[in-house]
C-alpha cells in the first residue's frame, strides 16, 4: 500500500522508455533494411551497366563461349548471378545453372518489364536457388542480332545477414540504454515520491491526532510550496481543533450542569448524548448507545420524537414517566438528522397547580354558603331600611353580588379544569346562538345598543351545549359591558372543516399592552370599568379553557373603534374528552 504510488510512477516511466526503444528499434531495422537493399540495388545497376557493354560486344562478335566464361568470371568476382534470356523467355546462358534445366522465364516480373523496354526490378523467392533474390533485367538491342535480356541477380541473404548484425548491435546498445533509463527512472521517481511520501506520513500523523507534525523538504520547486502550504494548513487545523475542543468542553460543562435533562437522538433512535439531569430523571446511568425506547417507556414521548423527525421542526408536549410529569421540547438538526430533546421535570409545578385548583374549589364552596346567607339577609333588610343606612346597604349588596359572581366563575373555571370528558352532542349552532342572543338582547337595549346575528347556515356540530353557551354569554356580555354606544354583531360562518364564531363590538377596544395577558385569570384591561360593571376578570379565561377543550382556538383583533373576538372550532369533532 505504501509503495503503490512509487511503483505506479516507476512502472509508467519504465514503460515509456521501453515503448520508445521498441519503436526506435522497429523504425531503425526497417530503415537499415531499406538502406542495405538500396545500396545493393545501386551496386547491381552500376555493375549491370559495365556487364551489359561487354555482353553486347561479345554477342556482336558471336563468341558465345567467351560470353559464358565472362559470366562465370563476373559471378565469382562479384557474387552476382548473370542470366541471358531471349525475348521468348528461353534461358540462353546462366552463370550458376545449366540453361537447359531452367524453365521459361517470360512470366517473370522483371522479364516482362524488360520486354517493354523498361528496367525490370523484382525481389522474390527463387525456385532454382531456393532463397530470396533481388533481380534487375534490361533489354539489349544488338545490331544485326535479335534483342536479348540481360538479368543480374543478388542474394538477399547477404542483406539479411547485414541487417541481423546491425539488429544485434543495436539491441545491445538499446539494452544498455534501457538499463540507464531504468536507473534514471528510479532516481527520478524516488526524487518525486520522497517528498510525497513524507507528506503522506505527516498527514497520517495529523489524522491520528499529532497536530505538531510538520513536513520538511529541502528543495526549491512546487513540492516545496506544497509542503509549506501543508504546514500552514496543519497549523490552522491545530488551532481550529483546539478551539473546537475548548467549545466542546465548555458545551459539555454547560449541559452537565443544566437542571433540565438533555438527550440527543439519531434517526435510528439511538441516544448519542445525555446529561446528568436526564440520567437522574430516568434513573439510568448508561444511556449512550441505547435506544431511547429502552429508557423512556412511554408511547407519547415516542410519538413526539417520531413527529419531530418526520416534520423536521420543533415539537413540544408532556408525558408521564414513573409518577413524574415531564415537559419536553424537541428540535431537529438538519444535515446530521438528529433530534435534541430538552426535558423539564414539572411534577412539582403540576402538584402545586393541583393544590391551587383544589384550594380554589374548596374555598369557593366554603364562600358560597355564607355569601348566600348574606344575600338573603340583605334582601330581608332592604325593605325596612331607609335614609343613610339604605345607601350603605346598597353598597354591601353590590359588593356581595360581585363576590357571588367571582365565586360562581371560580367554581365554573375549577370545574372546567377538572373536566376530563365533555358531554358532546350534535346540535344546530345557529339555534343555540339565536337563543343566547335573544337572552342578551334586553341588556344591550338598556344601553341603547343594537344586537344583530348573521350566519351562512353552518351544519350541525358536536359540542358540549352548556359550555358553548357559556362561551357565547361571556363574549356577548363582555361586548355589551365595554360598549357605550353603537352595536354588537354576532356572526356564524364555516368552511369545509371549521366553524367560525365572531363577536364584534364598537366599544373602547383593547390596547396592545394587554394583548398577551387578556386571557389570564383575574386580568382586567380596564379596572375602573370592570369594577363599575361588576366584572370578575375570569370570563375570557373560561372562554379560552372551553375552546381548548373543544380543540379550537380563540383570538381577537382590536382598535380604538372596537374589538372582534374570533373563535374557531373543528366541524369534524369525533373525539370526546
TrEMBL record:
EC number: 2.7.13.3
Signal peptide: none
Name the UniProt record assigns to this protein: histidine kinase
Top class in the EC scheme: transferase
Residue ranges of the TM segments: 6-27, 133-154, 166-188
Domain PAS: 247-282
UniProt key word Magnesium: no
Membrane topology, from the record: Multi-pass membrane protein
A GO molecular-function descriptor: ATP binding
Pfam family, one: HAMP
InterPro entries per UniProt: HAMP_dom, HATPase_C_sf, HATPase_dom, His_kinase_dom, HisK_dim/P_dom, HisK_dim/P_sf, HssS/ArlS-like, PAS
Domain Histidine kinase: start-end pairs: 362-573
Catalytic activity: ATP + protein L-histidine = ADP + protein N-phospho-L-histidine
GO biological process terms held by the UniProt record: regulation of DNA-templated transcription
GO CC terms of this entry: membrane raft; plasma membrane
Compartment(s): Cell membrane; Membrane raft
Domain of life, source organism: Bacteria
Keyword set, alphabetical order: ATP-binding, Cell membrane, Kinase, Membrane, Nucleotide-binding, Phosphoprotein, Transferase, Transmembrane, Transmembrane helix, Two-component regulatory system
Protein's UniProt keywords contain Kinase: yes
Domain (HAMP): residue spans on this chain: 190-242
Amino acid at each position: 500500500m505504501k509503495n503503490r504510488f512509487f511503483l505506479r510512477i516507476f512502472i509508467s516511466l519504465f514503460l515509456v522508455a521501453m515503448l520508445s526503444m521498441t519503436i526506435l528499434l522497429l523504425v531503425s531495422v526497417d530503415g537499415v533494411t531499406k538502406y542495405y537493399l538500396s545500396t545493393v540495388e545501386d551496386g547491381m545497376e552500376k555493375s549491370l551497366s559495365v556487364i551489359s557493354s561487354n555482353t553486347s560486344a561479345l554477342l556482336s562478335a558471336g563468341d558465345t563461349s567467351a560470353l559464358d566464361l565472362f559470366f562465370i568470371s563476373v559471378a565469382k568476382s562479384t557474387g552476382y548471378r548473370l542470366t541471358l534470356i531471349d525475348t521468348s523467355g528461353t534461358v540462353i546462358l546462366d552463370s550458376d545453372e545449366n540453361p537447359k534445366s531452367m524453365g521459361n522465364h517470360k512470366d517473370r516480373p522483371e522479364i516482362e518489364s524488360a520486354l517493354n523496354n523498361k528496367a525490370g526490378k523484382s525481389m522474390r523467392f527463387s525456385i532454382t536457388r531456393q532463397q530470396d533474390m533481388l533481380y534487375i533485367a534490361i533489354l539489349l538491342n544488338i545490331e544485326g542480332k535479335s534483342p536479348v535480356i540481360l538479368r543480374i541477380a543478388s542474394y538477399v541473404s547477404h542483406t539479411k545477414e547485414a541487417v541481423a548484425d546491425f539488429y544485434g548491435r543495436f539491441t545491445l546498445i538499446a539494452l544498455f540504454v534501457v538499463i540507464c533509463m531504468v536507473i534514471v527512472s528510479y532516481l527520478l521517481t524516488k526524487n518525486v515520491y520522497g517528498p510525497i511520501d513524507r507528506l503522506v506520513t505527516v498527514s497520517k500523523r495529523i489524522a491520528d491526532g499529532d497536530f505538531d507534525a510538520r513536513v520538511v523538504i529541502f528543495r526549491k520547486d512546487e513540492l516545496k510550496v506544497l509542503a509549506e502550504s501543508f504546514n500552514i494548513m496543519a497549523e490552522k487545523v491545530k488551532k481550529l481543533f483546539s478551539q473546537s475542543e475548548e467549545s466542546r468542553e465548555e458545551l459539555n460543562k454547560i449541559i452537565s450542569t443544566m437542571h433540565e435533562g438533555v438527550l440527543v437522538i439519531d434517526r435510528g433512535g439511538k441516544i448519542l448524548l445525555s446529561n446528568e439531569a436526564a440520567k437522574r430523571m430516568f434513573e439510568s446511568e448508561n444511556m449512550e448507545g441505547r435506544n431511547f425506547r429502552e429508557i423512556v417507556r412511554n408511547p407519547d414521548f415516542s410519538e413526539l420524537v417520531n413527529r419531530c423527525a418526520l416534520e423536521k421542526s420543533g415539537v413540544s408536549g408532556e408525558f408521564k414517566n414513573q409518577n413524574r410529569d415531564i415537559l419536553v421540547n424537541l428540535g431537529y438538526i438538519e444535515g446530521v438528522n438528529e433530534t435534541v430533546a430538552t426535558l423539564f421535570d414539572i411534577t412539582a409545578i403540576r402538584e402545586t397547580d393541583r393544590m391551587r385548583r383544589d384550594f380554589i374549589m374548596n374555598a369557593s364552596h366554603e364562600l358560597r354558603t355564607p355569601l348566600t346567607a348574606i344575600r338573603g339577609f340583605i334582601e330581608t333588610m332592604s325593605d325596612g331600611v331607609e335614609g343613610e343606612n339604605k345607601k350603605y346597604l346598597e353598597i354591601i349588596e353590590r359588593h356581595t353580588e360581585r363576590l357571588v359572581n367571582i365565586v360562581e366563575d371560580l367554581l365554573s373555571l375549577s370545574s372546567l379544569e377538572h373536566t376530563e370528558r365533555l358531554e358532546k352532542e350534535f346540535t344546530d349552532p345557529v339555534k343555540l346562538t339565536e337563543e343566547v342572543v335573544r337572552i342578551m338582547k334586553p341588556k344591550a337595549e338598556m344601553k341603547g345598543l343594537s344586537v344583530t346575528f348573521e350566519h351562512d347556515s353552518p351544519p350541525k356540530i358536536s359540542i358540549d351545549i352548556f359550555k358553548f353557551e357559556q362561551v357565547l354569554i361571556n363574549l356577548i356580555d363582555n361586548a355589551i359591558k365595554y360598549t357605550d354606544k353603537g352595536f354588537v354583531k354576532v356572526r356564524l360562518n364555516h368552511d369545509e372543516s371549521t366553524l367560525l364564531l365572531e363577536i364584534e363590538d364598537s366599544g373602547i377596544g383593547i390596547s396592545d399592552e394587554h394583548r398577551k395577558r387578556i386571557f389570564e385569570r383575574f386580568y382586567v384591561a380596564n379596572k375602573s370599568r370592570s369594577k363599575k360593571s361588576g366584572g370578575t376578570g375570569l370570563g375570557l379565561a373560561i372562554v379560552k379553557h372551553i375552546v381548548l377543550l373543544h380543540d379550537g382556538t380563540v383570538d381577537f383583533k382590536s382598535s380604538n373603534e372596537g374589538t372582534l373576538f374570533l373563535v374557531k372550532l373543528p366541524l369534524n369533532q369525533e373525539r370526546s374528552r
